[in-house]
Design brief:
Largest sheet: 6 strands, parallel
CATH class of the largest domain: Alpha Beta
Radius of gyration: 20 Å
CATH topology of the largest domain: Rossmann fold
Strand content: 15-25%
Helix content: 40-55%
Strand order of the largest sheet: 3-2-1-8-9-10
CATH architecture of the largest domain: 3-Layer(aba) Sandwich
Length: about 350
């Protein structure tokens, strides 16, 4: 009988996706949370958005001056700031994150070989029914999975349509969009209409309807993106992602409800759990796991360096079932997919 595996992936997975074949472009290495406001290449993307001048000035200094800086907690404070100008400036962050991770997805490496080796191991060499629960906005996992299986991810339903695998992007994706405002025909001034729609948007409670959302590959910036939906309505679009906040709520699951249902089913039925590159700060994800994970799944926890133990402790403090049958690997994602630890986990 084919075993079912849940693979939970965080920023550390994409950060360590370098490969053996191609020379990566280091300026577009997918960053960890604390590296989002640190390089000139990233600033050249951020400066497109007026609000990012303020956000960058604050966060670049704070993340540089304090190595233990809790970015997620700070962003939560900014999102819920009492000052309207701060909340307005904050709306530039998802726009910047979408453009940044889009650039990283397309420009860091021609093909994400680390993800490809993971996919081959899980689906071909030692076949499992695999449910990828990813906290990342980038499309590196989709690139690897599509290249191997020829399965396209160009509609929300495609992410959970295969009986062999699914991708549940709990925080959204760089190619997911929701409507801020809708009208029946093209406005005479699309740029002005988009800007006015953004100004009226309140991210604290924005949940677009399914018919007002779409999966679209947009090579250019998110700013001023106006699209025609399936029913020919015209929409001012905004990235359907969440900033990496420490105190997320149910609204933070930016994927459609059927995707969350698939995640719950997978956690209830899984025989194994593989966790790669996750910080353990996502309280809503930990709550989802703690309330749905049943039995004693075999667990492999993959981190990088001295902070691996701290992240693991955050997980088992919130999800005690993970500690019952677990092993820890602290040499990173790239080393893991070549290791005897990975082979043993697949064969178990």
């Amino acid at each position: 009988m084919t075993k079912r595996m849940v693979v939970l992936m965080g920023a550390g997975a994409s950060h360590d996706v370098a490969n053996y074949t191609f020379q990566p472009r280091p300026e577009f290495r997918p960053p960890l949370a604390t590296g989002l406001f640190q390089t000139e290449a990233f600033w050249n993307i951020a400066k497109t958005y007026v609000g990012m001048n303020t956000m960058w000035s604050l966060l670049a200094a704070e993340t540089t001056e304090n190595s233990a800086f809790a970015l997620e907690e700070r962003l939560s404070q900014l999102l819920n700031h009492h000052n309207v100008y701060m909340r307005r400036a904050f709306k530039a962050i998802p726009l910047y994150l979408r453009d940044l991770l889009s650039a990283c997805s397309l420009q860091y490496v021609p093909h994400p070989e680390t993800y490809a080796r993971l996919v081959v191991g899980l689906i071909a060499d030692h076949p499992h029914q695999v449910d990828f629960l990813t906290l990342n906005y980038d499309t590196l996992l989709e690139q690897a999975l599509s290249a191997f299986t020829q399965h396209a991810f160009n509609a929300f339903e495609h992410y959970i349509s295969s009986p062999e695998f699914s991708i549940v992007k709990l925080h959204g994706s760089i190619n997911w969009w929701g409507a801020m405002a809708i009208r029946g025909s093209q406005p005479p001034n699309p740029t002005g209409w988009w800007a006015a729609s953004l100004d009226a948007l309140d991210l604290r409670n924005w949940v677009p309807e399914p018919d007002d959302s779409a999966v679209m590959e947009v090579p250019g910036p998110a700013q001023y993106f106006v699209a025609t939906l399936r029913d020919e309505r015209v929409a001012a679009m905004y990235p359907l992602i969440t900033a990496p906040l420490i105190e997320k709520t149910a609204l933070s699951f930016r994927c459609p409800p059927p995707h969350v249902d698939r995640a719950r089913q997978a956690l209830e039925q899984c025989d194994k759990v593989l966790i790669i590159g996750c910080s353990g700060w996502d309280s809503h994800v930990l709550e989802l796991m703690n309330t749905t994970l049943t039995g004693r799944p075999l667990v492999s926890f993959v981190g990088a360096g001295t902070l691996t133990g701290d992240a693991w402790n955050r997980f088992i403090d919130s999800v005690p079932a993970l500690a019952l049958n677990a092993s820890i690997f602290d040499q990173g994602f790239k080393a893991y997919v070549s290791s005897s630890h990975f082979r043993a986990f697949l064969e178990a």
